[in-house]
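Good morning,

Attaching, inline, the backbone tokens for the sequence recovery test we're adding to the shared suite. The designed sequence is right after.
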């Protein structure tokens, strides 16, 4: 059985989906032809903090709405800022949570055995 590409009848329109909006990359919109280094530098931690979650992870493109070019540049600058210790690799409450440390199977406490 073959299928034919038929146009939809005029009385049946496609349902409008309010979630199909065009996302605009905010850094591209702000820079207006200038280079990305004019907006993002590894020295400006407050601007880069917007693209890092509270747990210290880099936010994905689908969440921030940036284009791939800007996202790679932001990621590179965040990693530079982490090396110089302007931004954390992980949040402090994630690193030093004693409850999580007790649950891990690698942390063996031999004093409880004997």
């Amino acid at each position: 059985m073959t299928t034919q590409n038929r146009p939809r009848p005029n009385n049946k329109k496609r349902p409008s989906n309010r979630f199909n909006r065009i996302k605009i990359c905010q850094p591209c919109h702000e820079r207006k032809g200038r280079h990305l280094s004019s907006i993002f530098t590894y020295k400006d931690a407050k601007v880069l903090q917007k693209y890092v979650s509270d747990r210290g992870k880099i936010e994905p493109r689908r969440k921030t709405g940036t284009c791939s070019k800007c996202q790679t540049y932001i990621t590179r600058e965040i990693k530079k800022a982490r090396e110089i210790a302007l931004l954390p690799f992980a949040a402090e409450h994630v690193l030093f949570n004693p409850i999580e440390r007790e649950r891990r199977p690698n942390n063996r406490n031999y004093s409880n055995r004997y």
